[in-house]
Design goal:
This protein is of the alpha/beta class. 35% of the residues lie in helices and 13% in strands. It has a domain at 11-181: TIM Barrel (Alpha-Beta Barrel), CATH 3.20.20. The protein has helices at residues 36-39, 44-49, 57-67, 94-99, 101-111, 150-156, 163-175, 190-200, 223-236, 245-248; strands spanning 19-20, 24-25, 52-53, 83-85, 116-120, 140-144, 179-184, 206-209, 241-243.
């Protein structure tokens, strides 16, 4: 089980997907709040400055799928649980365009009956693979959005796609009939998070709302007030949403 590329997330990650696959070691987006270097026990400078594909990841994935993954459940309709790309890296960091690994991984997962959930800050870089994604197959496309303000994004997420590119990508996915969702986590500026909901609810099928963890700024945010305002706004917009456990506890 521990050697499987496809694995069952635990803790907070489990609220996003039943299965996951990390295709790369490291991520050049260099988000200042990134938890992944610690989770991967990797030096932060190396993690962000020297990302690379996992060794022989596609060959290993194909072998793992061919022999039958040890993880994952068949639903009542016979469909396998979806696999999320990715938790500890980004499937559409610039490296993905150079290697083609993300596209090949999606093709393999589909070949063996796994729906794919994409979660990225890569913006329009991800659009190159929209032809592979289908709501009928159980696929979804998601982006993490923390800001609308370009300057804030460049400060906190210096090499990720800018908010405008992420918004364009998720709107395009929706227009192509792909199920969409937005991860509103971390919440760094509550007002911008609420404005994201207002601007996107017409083309986003689901919002997943969390908090900010492991950062001093979190102590300055009125989480009960934000939680109530977020739920009220989501309901007012008629949006589907999931409040993550870290935020739900503030709702009383």
């Amino acid at each position: 089980m521990s050697a499987s590329l496809i694995y069952e997330p635990a803790g907070r990650a489990r609220e996003y997907a039943p299965l996951a696959l990390n295709l790369y070691r490291g991520c050049s987006h260099s988000c200042t709040y990134c938890y992944a270097p610690d989770a991967c026990r990797q030096d932060r400078a190396d993690f962000h400055g020297n990302p690379k594909p996992r060794v022989d990841v596609i060959a290993k994935l194909e072998r793992e799928l061919a022999k039958g993954s040890e993880v994952g459940m068949q639903r009542m309709n016979g469909q396998k649980d979806p696999v999320l790309l990715c938790f500890t890296t980004d499937p559409y960091q610039p490296l993905a365009a150079e290697t083609g690994i993300t596209r090949r991984a999606i093709e393999l997962l589909h070949q063996y009956g796994y729906p794919v959930h994409v979660l990225t800050k890569g913006g329009m870089r991800a659009a190159v693979d929209f032809d592979l994604l289908s709501t009928n197959a159980g696929d979804t496309f998601a982006t993490t959005l923390t800001f609308l303000n370009r300057a804030d994004s460049e400060q906190w997420e210096p090499h990720a796609a800018l908010p405008a590119s992420r918004l364009k990508a998720i709107a395009l996915a929706h227009a192509r009939g792909i199920a969409t969702w937005i991860s509103l986590e971390p919440v760094i500026d509550p007002e911008q998070t609420l404005e994201i909901i207002r601007r996107t609810h017409e083309y986003v099928d689901l919002f997943k709302v969390g908090t900010l963890n492991h950062h001093e700024l979190a102590k300055t945010i009125d989480w009960p007030a934000f939680a109530r305002r977020a739920v009220d706004l989501l309901q007012e917009c008629g949006a589907s949403y999931y409040i993550k456990n870290d935020l739900r506890r503030y709702l009383g």
